[in-house]
Specification:
- The chain has about 260 residues and is α/β, with parallel strands linked by helices.
- α5 runs parallel beside α9.
- A hairpin with a 7-residue loop joins β4 and β5.
- The longest helix has 17 residues.
- The protein folds into two domains: about 150 residues, 3-Layer(aba) Sandwich (Rossmann fold); about 80 residues, SIR2/SIRT2 'Small Domain'.
- A six-stranded parallel beta sheet has the order 3-2-1-7-8-9, sandwiched between helices. Strands 5-4-6 form a three-stranded antiparallel beta sheet, with helices on one face.
- The chain has nine helices and nine strands.
- The structure holds 2'-O-acetyl adenosine-5-diphosphoribose and zinc ion (ZN).
- Zinc ion (ZN) binds next to loops.
C-alpha cells in the first residue's frame, strides 16, 4: 500500500505540533509509557514547582540525566523531514514542539516554538535572571546558585501548573489566522503526541475551526483523535518523511 502523503499547493501553510513520540526513535523515552512512569519517576515528582520546592536536588538530578540522554541522541528521519519541509515552505511553515530535547534545532529547524521550554537553558527560580545556556550533566552535584540573587537555578521548562509563554500562544494563533485571512490552504499536522496536555492538545481544534485540514501521525491512539481528518498510525520515522514528501516544487515536477 502506498504511504499517505499530504498534498501541497503554492499557498499551503503547514503548522506542525510535535510531542515526545517524534524523539522516541532517537532513543528518548516518552512520558506516558510503561506504567505511567517517565524514566522511573512519576511526572508529578519531577515536573512540578512543588516537586522542586520539596526536593530541588532530586529534580535537578533528573534533568541533568535528561540532558545526558538528549545530548547523546541524534535527530532522526522525522526531525530531518520537518527541517526539509521548512526549507521548502519558508514562512509558510511553523513548528510548535512540546519537546525540550533540542533535536529539532539540531536537525536544522529554525522556525520553531519550544512551547514547553528547553532542557538546555536554566533560569533563576526566584528573580528574573536568565534564561542562560546550561549544558550541565553533573548528576552528583546538580545545584547551581543564581549569580544575581543566590537562589537556586531551575530548568527553563514549563512544569505542570505553570503558564506557557503567551508570545508562543500568540504566534500559533497568528499563523492560523493569517492563513484564514489570506484564504490560503492550511494543514495542521500533529506528530507523536498523546493529545493529553493542553493548550497544545487544543491547537488541532483551533486550526480546524478556521478551516484547516488536520493530520495526526502517531504510533497509537491519541486522546484528541476525533479532531483529526486523517490519522496515520505508525512510527514517526516511517510515516513522516512520506507524509511531507510532496511539500516542495520538485514533487510537482516544477524546478
Ligand atoms: P506522551 O508520552 O504523552 O505521548 C507520546 C505519544 O507518542 C504517544 O501517543 C505514543 O503513542 C506516541 N509514540 C511513541 N513512539 C512513537 C513513534 N516512534 N512514532 C510516533 N509516535 C510515537 O508525550 P507528549 O504528548 O509529548 O510536558 O506529552 C505532552 C507533555 O506532557 C510533554 O511535553 C510533557 C509531558 O508532561 C512537560 O514536560 C511540560
Ligand atoms: Zn536570581
Amino acid at each position: 500500500m502506498p504511504h499517505p502523503a499530504i498534498s501541497f499547493d503554492d499557498t499551503t501553510r503547514l503548522l506542525v505540533l510535535t510531542g515526545a513520540g517524534i524523539s522516541a526513535e532517537s532513543g528518548l523515552a516518552t512520558f506516558r509509557g510503561a506504567g505511567g512512569l517517565w524514566e522511573g519517576s512519576r511526572v508529578e515528582d519531577v515536573a512540578t514547582p512543588e516537586a522542586f520546592e520539596a526536593n530541588p536536588e532530586r529534580v535537578l538530578r533528573f534533568y541533568a540525566a535528561r540532558r545526558l540522554g538528549a545530548g547523546a541522541a541524534h535527530p532522526n528521519a522525522a526531525h530531518l523531514a520537518l527541517a526539509e519541509a521548512e526549507a521548502r515552505l519558508g514562512d509558510r511553515f511553523l513548528l510548535a514542539t512540546q519537546n525540550v530535547d533540542g533535536l529539532h534545532a539540531r536537525a536544522g529547524s529554525r522556525h520553531t516554538l519550544e512551547i514547553h521550554g528547553s532542557l538546555w537553558r536554566s533560569r533563576c527560580s526566584r528573580c528574573h535572571a536568565g534564561p542562560v545556556e546550561d549544558r550541565s550533566t553533573e548528576i552528583a552535584h546538580p545545584l547551581r546558585a543564581c549569580a544575581t540573587c543566590g537562589s537556586l537555578m531551575r530548568p527553563d521548562i514549563v512544569w505542570f501548573g505553570e503558564m506557557l509563554d503567551p508570545a508562543h500562544e500568540w504566534a500559533v494563533r497568528s499563523f492560523v489566522k493569517a492563513a484564514d485571512m489570506a484564504r490560503a490552504r492550511l494543514v495542521f499536522l500533529a506528530i507523536g503526541t498523546s493529545g493529553n496536555v493542553y493548550p497544545a492538545a487544543g491547537y488541532v481544534r483551533y486550526a480546524k475551526d478556521l478551516g484547516a485540514e488536520t493530520w495526526l501521525a502517531n504510533a497509537d491512539e491519541a486522546a484528541n483523535a476525533h479532531w483529526f481528518d486523517h490519522i496515520v498510525t505508525g512510527p514517526a520515522t516511517g510515516v513522516v518523511p512520506a507524509l511531507l514528501s510532496a511539500s516542495g516544487p520538485e514533487a510537482r515536477g516544477v524546478r
